[in-house]
Amino acid sequence: MSALQGKSISSIGAIVGIASIVSNLAVAQSQTLPPATIADNDSIYIDGKTFAITPGRAKGDTSAQIEALGARDLGPGAIIFRSGEKLYIVAAPVLVPGARNQSGQNVPAPVENDRPNRVTVEYVVPKSAELQELYGMLREHRVLEDMQGILSPFRLPEELTIKTTECGMVNSWYSRENSKPTVTICYELLRHILQSLPKKTAPGAITPKDAAVGQFFWLTTHEVGHAMFDLFKVPIFGHAEDAADNFAGYIMLQFGKERAGRLIAGGAWAWRMYVADYRTNPIVKTQLAGFASNHGQPEERFYNLMCLAFGADPVTFADLTQDGYLPPNRAPSCRFEYDTLAYAFHREISPHIDQQIARQVLDTAWFSNVPPTLAPPPPQRHGVDRFAGRAAPKPDSERFRSAPRTCRPVQH
Predict the structure, then answer these.
(1) Which of 15, 229, 281, 321 has the fewest CB atoms below 10 angstroms from its CB?
(2) Which residue(s) pair with 53 in the sheet?
(3) CA-to-CA distance for 367 and 249, rounded, in angstroms?
(4) What rounded mean pLDDT belongs to the chain?
């Protein structure tokens, strides 16, 4: 992982960058057209060749027509604009007429019941004596409170709970508990992370704190990604687990410069043993059943995260290709992969983010209560620890595996 050590990433834009573009388009439009509304059952057709605007009115039951036409809800709002001989549409927050910021731009209005600061946290007291020390350590370092602050800009339609608890297994997941959105992180998983931190720290190497914070940040935002897909009803093509991985990686990369580099390097520490000897042992052997998992193989997840980082900033992360961590047949597509992810995030997630709070989050030094060195908790004394004595979990029980999701079909 030396290529990741001491990395920094240049500022690649705030999470909510598209909102200001949308506001400018709306302001320009409002200066030339009078305010108007579209009545219930009314429609507007814009000809893509002549650009003529034709109003219309639905006949009969509109719900049946919506289903027959495959129409979809535009969400908080949308803007259609012309550039040259083409029409473009972009999802946008609802704009409040007359409400403007100091620059004179319209201010996005939250959807009804959507509010920031709707994440709550809970440390569930473990029953096992060997997890008591870990429970106390997490509370002392206030790790859940820091995640609560990082997620505070998201305008959520309902309260999201993030809790740590004893599970009897190494795992984490998102589900609805009694209909309430809940991210569950097992103490057993956090114990395994602390037991697998780097033992020695050379100059410029990944520190135990970076490895611990990076992995905790990644696994938590991975599960929070599932929550956001559920709460905001985000349509997903492909594997939901891959989408959650991308959500976590994208959030990491928004912190810019040195912090983003440390988060990426720390998060990737989880898969270090799978790729550590890639030069001397490039052949991977695994059971065929491992490919049937709804999660990608650890090696795939490692390369996907590296590709996002390289795509976000190929200059800063150039060593990923130079040192062989990112194969030459993958690197050329990384910028496209990152841009595709950024577009999806801006379209589906950014309208639900409070810009002012997000800027404060990106400027805050989080996890300052976590000490530079972390003593591993005592190993499990009763029963069988699935990962005891192993440097890394096997693919069929890899440790970021999530429990079956009961919230919506797209979350399975």
Answers:
(1) 281
(2) 46
(3) 18
(4) 77
Domain extents in the chain: 2-18+113-411, 19-109
pLDDT tens per residue across span 304-327 = 998 999 999 888 777 777 677 788
Q: Which helix (H) or strand (E) holds 247?
A: helix 240-253
* Main-chain phi, psi angles of 222, to 5 degrees: -60, -50
pLDDT, residue 387, reads 31
Residues of the chain with confidence (pLDDT) below 70: 1-35, 61, 63-78, 90-112, 201, 203-204, 273-274, 276-280, 294, 322, 376-412
| Cα–Cα dist 408/129, whole Å | 36
- Pick from 407, 408, 384, 411: nearest CA to 397: 384
DSSP 8-state secondary structure symbol assigned to residue 56:
E
Q: Which of 193, 209, 213 is nearest to 201 (CA)?
A: 209
Beta carbons within 8 Å of 67's beta carbon, 6+ residues apart? none
265: Cα separation from own chain's centroid? 16
Helices 298-312 and 334-348 pack at an angle, to 10 degrees, of 80
Residue whose structure tokens are 């695994």: 286
Length of the chain: 412
CB–CB of 310/331 below 8 Å? yes
